[in-house]
Amino acid sequence: MLIDTHCHFAAADFATDRDALAAAAGAAGIQAMVVPAVDVASFAEVRACCARYSACAAAFGIHPLYVRHASESDLKRLRECLADALAGPDRPVAVGEIGLDFFVTDPGVERQEHFFTEQLKIARETGLPVLLHVRRAIDQVLKNLRRIKVRGGIAHAFNGSRQQADEFIKLGFKLGFGGALSYPGSTRIRRLAASLPLEAIVLETDAPDMPPAWLAGGRNTPLQLPRINEVLAGLRGIDAGLLARVTSANALAVLPELRLPG
Predict the structure, then answer these.
(1) CA-to-CA dists, residue 135 to 50, 107, 113, 203, angstroms
(2) Residue 64: what pLDDT?
(3) What value does the mean pLDDT of the chain take?
(4) How many CA atoms lie within 13 A of 240 on its CB side?
(5) Strand partners, 135
(6) 128 in Cβ contact with 95 (< 8 Å)
(7) Strand, coil or helix: what is 94?
(8) Statement: the pTM of the whole predicted model exceeds 0.85
(9) Comparing C-alpha atoms, which of 84, 74, 80 is closest to residue 40?
(10) Structural contact between residues 137 and 168, judged by C-beta atoms closer than 8 angstroms
């Protein structure tokens, strides 16, 4: 069993072959995919995707790179979307994808932090964990997480130091690893993925983005998850089946609303 904890399966990139990919993912042992929204315009697409495919579970939030077009009314719509979804049969598993990205200068730091902290408050109100986007802003994200306590969640595509990893773990977070660890030059990510406590790690693809090395920059898909699992198992020197079971258990522990189909 494998769980893809971060897959943008509702993206337009999969419009032509989404049904085939969903069937192939199930056949490959991928029993669940967490599908995060990035802005209010994508909420309906994510809900429709998760209603169509039993292996998909929704998360709703406003990505830091999309807050340049967001307004205060979007935060209201997020609250309304979460309340409506939580009252229905297909409950969301997290608030996300939210966070900070200081690699870019537009939107600015203040605007990003405002939407991030407001969404942390929404996560706290709903009791949902969060899916974090963190790029060149780890310490700032940690600062806000200490100030606004949430249920924990996943630091997606983690690329920080061991000390920073330990701080996330203390706050109840798991750390997401995906295709980046397949590159021999990604020495820090590979070292972290090999040495962190196994109970702190979850797997992800971030499909259609962040393709692993063997795709040579091509479109990423959830079907890459078994091979990512094998690469990480090799780095850690453990059985791939064991790694799949443990990382899936980790995902279920940190995302308690996540339900496996069947």
Answers:
(1) 27, 14, 13, 18
(2) 98
(3) 97
(4) 11
(5) 101
(6) yes
(7) strand
(8) yes
(9) 74
(10) no
Residue 105: is its pLDDT beyond 90? no
CA atoms of 102 and 112, how far apart (whole Å): 9
HSE-CB at 143 with a 13 A cutoff on CA atoms is 6
**Residue 163 buriedness (CB in 10 A; 0-12 / 13-18 / 19+):** exposed
Retrieve residue 75's tokens: 């935060």
Tens-digit pLDDT profile for residues 177-189: 999 999 999 999 9
- Examine residue 208 and say whether the peptide bond preceding it is cis (omega within 30 degrees of 0): yes
Average of per-residue pLDDT across 66-85? 97
What is the C-alpha separation between 172 and 142, in angstroms, rounded? 12
Helix ranges restricted to H, 103-257? 109-126, 138-147, 162-170, 187-195, 225-236, 240-254
* 3-state DSSP assignment of residue 116: helix
Q: Which of 131, 124, 65 is nearest to 100 (CA)?
A: 65
Amino acid occupying residue 135: R
Contacts of 41 (CB under 8 A, 6+ apart): none
Does residue 112 carry a pLDDT above 90?
yes
pLDDT at residue 75 in the model: 98
